[in-house]
Amino acid sequence: xxxxxxxxxxxxxxxxxxxDVAFAMGQREDVSDLISMKRFANSExxxxxxxxEQDFSDIGHKLQGKSLIIVSTSSLMxxxxxxxMRTLMIARAAKENGAAEVILVEPDLYYSAQDRGPxxxxxxxxxxxxxxxxxxxxxxxxxxxxxxxxLKLAGVDRVLTVHNHSHxxxxxxxDVFGGKFYNIIPYDIYxxxxxxxxxxxxxxxxxxxxxxxxxxxxxxxxxxxxxxxNLSKAKFVLLDKVRTGERKVDIQIHAESEWRLxxxxxxxxxxxxDMVRTGSTVVQSCQxxxxxxxxxxxxxxxxxxxxxxxxxxxxHTAIDEILALxxxxxxxxxxxxxRLRKKMVVLKIERWLALxxxxxxxxxxxxxxxxxxxxxxxxxxxRWQHKIWLSEQLKTLKKR
Length: 400
Description:
Blueprint: E1 6-10, H1 16-24, E2 35-39, E3 45-49, E4 67-71, H2 80-96, E5 101-105, H3 131-136, H4 143-154, E6 158-162, H5 167-176, E7 181-184, H6 187-196, E8 209-213, H7 219-229, E9 235-245, E10 248-253, E11 268-276, H8 280-290, E12 296-304, H9 308-313, E13 321-325, H10 334-337, E14 344-348, H11 350-361, E15 374-377, H12 382-399
Parallel strand pairs: 1-4, 4-5, 5-6, 6-7, 8-9, 8-11, 11-12, 12-13, 13-14
Antiparallel strand pairs: 2-3, 9-10, 14-15
Helix pairs in contact: 1-11, 2-4, 4-5, 6-7
């Protein structure tokens, strides 16, 4: 990357996720040397792009001809509302100082849960909305649309996110940003890890492996995963969830599933989803799968922002292992993982994100011999312990 043209900053000077993305793109200047995250005595935020105090030649044009990339991720220290406001102010500061373009990289796009409003003209869904669905949003705002419009007003020109689940949000962001909205799906990360780790076991052509979608919303993603794995004998199972209360669902095999539950007995099963909140649905799904005596059940997800309730639920023995990405970096915190750290592995996506960002911006791809991702796994994880054991065995054999 030509650092003289592109500048990468985060929502805070010491955001490790933003720093790693910047480094992967070739930026060697420290974020704290590029922008000051000032805060007045009355707590108001005032970002300031740093310039030479003696330079009076380009006041208000410090960023002339440059493009700013804001990497925005969740934090344990600040609410998402605070982080969103900081993004708006950083973007406006960049534009008022001459920036040619502002690009927001928000792996977990804020306000995506509020993806439609209480009228048919508030959100473009890929299903027919009935009175019950409209009533769910009665009295509240279409927050995702407001957020998109505020970003645009502040000066953001492009938005890049990861595995956004909402058709309505994607359609609306595309409208607001004139097609400069990029929802990148981490197929290659999941494929690489499933093929090159020992998280699941299967035959040469995928014998003994089953991929599972928890509902029709995840079907296309999981089918594409099977195609990209190129394992012709891997099986696909589609589940169906019937909501029987605000927080209660019943899980069953979907009528359109390619394989029945009894046909995947003894298989290692990977259940994919884009996110987890309370954990109720995934635990019930894995309990259903455990009923047919599988080899192993793995829950793979992109956005891990489970509540405390969710983390407690997912400690259930129905889930053997959890595979997550660090789109929400707090997942790397051992206190956040709690008991789940014994069966959790997190794939850190900063390098992969930088590669995709360079591709979208038409920049030279960063040269790297490393993997697309880094792996974070607690020593409490049995697979980590097995890896250490194998390493010790190899050392012993070499000495002989």
